[in-house]
């Protein structure tokens, strides 16, 4: 299976505007790149150069319209999404794929989001959809459930070496279905603060995002499992934000790490 085929067809990139745009452009370039599979985006091929210049015919950006005064409208309207949906079925111009970036996808009104559902669920094999938003909460649950959610941070802070190590270990044990070892691993983390546990979850989600787009080996886990683990990391972070005790969260992790959906 090539790297490109392993990429998911629909992503939600949630975070500050600048950061999420950077991330969606990198993903789009990776998807469209014609360079060697292990070096995408290569930055050198015809496709990468067209993306960088903003003239790739198979990279489409959908944004809010502007009014007569040049001010951005408040919403993305249903007719814009209908247009996207019908153009999605037209074959790519240049290469094998086409990518749509929906800027401010969080401003799609409910009708627009509903018009999107069918395409999000079953896009043509050559189509990828990247939805940028401040927070995934702006999107309907039916939209969220059809996409891989990736949180993008403003100042990209690298996780600490410890957090990364713990996250690696957690994923190793989850991949190996090592339930007993997982229990002793999570028990051993009983003294971690909420902050340290949050960092573990963030590091794990970063690793999972890289596994999902083929930058890291997937530890032989299918995509559905990687997505389930990624959602578990979201849940972990959310619980900790709402002051659920670290011990309780660790208990949840030791069980739900093995859930397949
Ligand atoms: Zn390239």
Task: Draw up the topology in text.
Blueprint: H1 3-6, E1 10-14, H2 17-32, H3 46-53, E2 59-62, H4 78-87, E3 98-102, H5 110-121, E4 127-133, H6 141-144, E5 148-151, H7 161-175, H8 179-188, H9 194-212, H10 223-241, H11 246-256
Parallel strand pairs: 1-4, 1-5, 2-3, 3-4
Helix pairs in contact: 2-3, 4-5, 7-8, 7-9, 8-11, 9-10, 10-11
Bound molecules: zinc ion (ZN).
Zinc ion binds at residues 33-35, 41-42, 44-45, 47-48.
Please state the average pLDDT score: 91
Strand content: 5-15%
Radius of gyration: 19 Å
Q: Low-confidence stretches at least 5 residues in length (pLDDT < 50)?
A: 1-5
Largest sheet: 5 strands, parallel
Q: How many DSSP-defined strands?
A: 5
- Strand and helix order: HEHHEHEHEHEHHHHH
Walk across the major sheet and give the strand order: 2-3-4-1-5
* Separation of the first and last Cα atoms: 23 Å
Q: Into which percent range does the helicity of residues fall? A: 40-55%
User: Which CATH architecture of the largest domain would you pick?
Assistant: 3-Layer(aba) Sandwich
Secondary structure category: alpha/beta
CATH topology of the largest domain: Rossmann fold
Question: How many structural units, i.e. domains?
Answer: 2
**How would you name the CATH homologous superfamily of the largest domain?**
P-loop containing nucleotide triphosphate hydrolases
Total helices: the number is: 11
User: What is the general shape?
Assistant: globular
CATH class of the largest domain: Alpha Beta
Bound molecules: zinc ion
